[in-house]
Predict the structure.
Amino acid sequence: MHLCCLFLLCLCASHIICGEAKGVYEDTINLVNSFYESKGISLLTAYVCWGEYERKLVRSLAYSGIRANLAPVPTALLSILQQDSYYRVGVLVDLACRNSRDALFEASSKKLFNLQKFWLLLESGCLSEDAAVLQDNNTNYDVVYSVDKNVESHFNTNFTYSLSKFGKTVLSNLRILADCEVTWVQLNGGTRQSEELQVSHRNMQSPLNLLTNGTMVEPDVLLLDVYKTSTVQPLNVSISGVAFLSNEEEDECFRVLFARRAPITRRRVDLHGAHFKTATVILFPDQFTDWDDLNLRHVDKWSKIHWPIFGYLRDQLNFSFEITHQLDSYGWLTNGTFNGVMGYLQREEIEFPTTGIFVRQDRIGVTSYAAPTFPLRATTIFRQPSLSTVSNIFILPFDKSVWLCCIALCLSSVFTLGIQIIWMEGQHIEQDMVHASWSDMFTLVLGAICQQGYHVTPTSLAGRITVFFLTLSSLFLFTSYSANIVALLQTPSTFFKTIHDLTNSPMIIRVENQTYNGVFMKETTDPELREFYRCKIEPLGEKAYQHAEVGMADIKKPMHAFQVDSAFAYKFMSETYEEHEKCDLKEINLFPAPMCTIATTKGSFLREYFSQRVVWYRNVGLLDRLFKIWMPQKAKCVSNAGGFVSVGMIEFYPAMMVLQYGTALAVVILLLEVLYFHRSLIISKFCFILHQKHVHR
């Protein structure tokens, strides 16, 4: 009998305990479901030890459209999280489970507390006091309790609360910076002033009140938002939600209230004076004077133009930075490691550089790019050669159709004069041109067109009219031709328009001695640029790279080109070039202009803060203003009058060639005429020589 009573007593006790556990776990599942449903998360990774209630958690989340991955061990949790790095996911961890703290520390070392993951850390999955969990008594951790203005409008929290001892122990050793979404769930164990607690109905996500039958009900569970402004700063804690556990005796259901909160990059705009180490690049330390020196704006211009941007970010986000390293190189990959600024980012010795960095494939693994700022304007500048250099200017004044008309005029004039003279000769009118041949007619017409005339002229009225209109037409043509020749002598060509044109030209090309010029040309995949580098740059070796001032001075010489940063080029031209020299210059971009970008260490929480604000600076015109201040603009061509242009041998070369060919042809014809005139004597001598040879045989 006693054994039966004892058995029934144990059965009732176990039923009560299991019922309570079931109710508490149901509240926990409802809390998790409501939390991630409010965040709009569609995928959850969880590490819990709830036994059979884990399947109930998965089903409950599935009903809300949330897929769940249950990690059996902490290592599996980390493996899943490292794969889920490209989209937003939820992470649930029960700190009452074995090795859960080790999993958090490992996740912290791998920078898995970031903007892409919503962490929900349960002090205890069953939402009850657990001695095993609260066994840490260390209280030497600094905690700052802040009030979010957005939360204050939702929860008029006049009761006090505090982070539990275990929460301080766990969270203070984690890397949970300002870009992390970490919510700590604990029992409400703080001292409260419940008589002053009020909640506004219209600001709640759920029409629930903390007043029940006129009596103030204190929340059972607190959801605390925690983060740090830097690894050495104390925890910043604020309340983000409250929950009320179900109570069957008082017929109360589980309730949870969340405050409507802005994104973290909008509400965590105060970094509380966090201090960061930075580095900068000074390529010309012997010429560098000050960050605001506009007189030498071309000296380390990229570091100077980015300096005000970091000043805006410092003032807007309330942080400070110190330049701990001044370098002369942006950093390039050598044997698997970077030198220069990129080396410090790779080793995480600085948080960000105070200058722009080019986006490169090999740098993506060691840095995070925030936002682009200014483009690199590197271009090939040269003077277009004169038309006489690349073309025969003596055939350019008339196009093909005009030249055909001129030939037709000559032939028709020769034919007309020939017919007239032959007919007039039969009438005994043209006595002066009785012996004129068709070649004489051609010479007469050619002399008229070339404004040279002829020693005889037709005496008939028809012949004179023909010669008059021929001469008049020749005058018009000669005047137009001469005027165009003068204009063409002063007109530059448009022969070089592409990289292919430069490659196949005799132009001498040099490159500014900047590291990125050689790197981009060697690494390019553009076939035209590779051919250009192989033909024009590679054969010269180091001689192909010149100082900017030397290269810009060489551009004044004909058939010289120089690849240079346009900011320096425009400044140099405005100071040393004459007006007509500026107008003659042309530019060709060899490769697409890369963008300078604000960069941080890999996985830095500052990336998103910098990105949003730099984009805002661009939208409101701050970046455009800085660019106009620090980057010289291209000088406008006001007047293209170059003054007197002398004719050189290059311009006169085609005429000289005509004279040489004509002289050579005349000599050849003279020799042929001499041979023809003495043909009988030559033939007789040749026959005599042949006869003598035959006799001697």
About this structure: Residues 150 and 261 are 6 Å apart (CA to CA). Residues 1-22, 129-137, 190-215 have pLDDT under 50 and may be disordered. The longest strand covers residues 235-244.
